[in-house]
């Protein structure tokens, strides 16, 4: 069923050969998000609402913003679209233009229309999608003289491809019922988005269920037969998303739909669904199309424009060359086109052709499952495109304390992904792990060191460790970490046994010029029980070379929700150090064999039959 926007457009001079690309909004859908991510006043007074803007006399509006831009460079690179049309309803007098940038940010005008005394009339502008190979975008600008100009219902259109796939949305949730319900509500209230969505799968893996909320019945009525609510025991993000993928590909009537993964706890711009769906339908080859992540606590900031990995040092989330990183989007937009290796699953569309060709995700529970899938798709010739202007707000990563039980899955799974897709090098990764182990120990994060050791040991167990999808490992790592006191969060107003007056706040010195020598020195000091002082350390100053100066350090968590108490324990540090070096030595010896074993097990691990077994077993 076509939505009202499409029908209204087709009743004009255009026909059904056009497909909506994106809508031009002038204000944010939530009060928490800045309106300047959508449009802003370049001059004078501009009155902005969600779909309507009134430009007062002698004023100028621009949509040269994160959500206001049309990512022309990406359309020229990945699709056959040669022209974009912009339509809108206008009242009053003024000038409306399509402006464009190039890869270095230089601006030009590509189309203009003058409006004289319009009374709710439709205007259209066309622009060629050319001269954007290395970068550049398009956007609207409107200006007035002596009179007022109002604009609303602005839509961007391209020629409709021969075949259109609907979108099936998959939301995986675990004990975030209110967040999930909020996201579903946003989807259900947007007619344009719903016109492109064939089904919505909610995979609920928690015991505080979404269906227990009073508002769930309203969501069910809004979606009707499109909503499929599934419950299963917790198989992590990998198991939750793959269950939805499995239902779309094998069970439901939408086995030729694009599958859009979305986290449950995002703040969703609903037009992101439109932008990802249309772009995926227009690419010349099937491509994974992902949305960008903006910070939930700082909603004007972009996490990263596009991501790659450094498998040697097991590092995800490396900004692609020239990509924006932790950027203020009210001051800067990305003009250079950048290519991604993968896209995280906070909002990521996977075409059914990709699933049919490369199989299902690995049963990694969570962490690195999205990365592995993107790398595998790329290896089979299916690119990942992280599309500017398609975005969701998600919890700020740098406000999370990664010294927590999920760190086990990040470490273990990164070793698995390295074995599958990394370059064979026997010593570089073990050297990195030895360094990490020593830094954890010298920082008195003994639980984190034990987590690292457990992750390596389980990787060394081979592909069999993935037999249950990670359920036993999730329980085991929580139990392990509970044995180490510094993994417990304490409130700042009172820590048992430590008077607040005994904790002077100490600032860290700059990064050592010879960090290896300082590390050896700190380790020797700790072995010889030299540190004696106690100190409070801010999250900003919690560097290993600073924390290791003290016998007890009360360290603020990055979340700012409490503190951790790290105490020097010579016996524990020696035990973990010896055990860790031994297990890393095993990794050196057995690494080549494990690489072959994981690669040989890959077809079975990612098969429909394996996931069917996991779903049935739970």
Task: Explain what you see.
The protein has 618 residues and is of the alpha+beta class. It folds into 3 domains: 4-159, Spore Coat Polysaccharide Biosynthesis Protein SpsA, Chain A (Alpha-Beta Complex), CATH 3.90.550.60; 167-399, Alpha-Beta Complex (Spore Coat Polysaccharide Biosynthesis Protein SpsA, Chain A), CATH 3.90.550.60; 406-572, no CATH class. It has 17 helices and 24 strands. Strands 1, 2, 3, 4, 5, 6, 7, 8 and 9 form a 9-stranded antiparallel beta sheet that branches. A hairpin with a 5-residue loop joins strand 6 and strand 7.
Furnish the topology, listing elements before pairings.
Elements: H1 4-10, E1 18-24, E2 40-43, E3 46-48, E4 52-55, E5 60-62, H2 72-78, E6 83-101, E7 107-128, E8 138-143, E9 149-159, E10 167-173, H3 177-188, H4 191-196, E11 197-204, H5 216-223, E12 227-231, H6 236-251, E13 258-263, E14 267-268, H7 271-282, E15 288-295, E16 301-304, E17 307-310, E18 315-319, E19 325-328, E20 347-350, H8 352-358, H9 369-379, E21 384-394, H10 406-421, H11 428-442, H12 446-460, H13 471-481, H14 515-527, E22 534-537, H15 544-547, E23 552-556, E24 563-567, H16 570-605, H17 608-617
Parallel strand pairs: 10-11, 10-13, 11-12, 15-21, 22-23
Antiparallel strand pairs: 1-9, 2-5, 3-4, 4-9, 5-8, 6-7, 6-8, 6-9, 13-20, 14-21, 15-20, 16-19, 17-18, 23-24
Helix pairs in contact: 3-5, 6-17, 10-12, 10-16, 11-12, 11-14, 11-16, 12-16
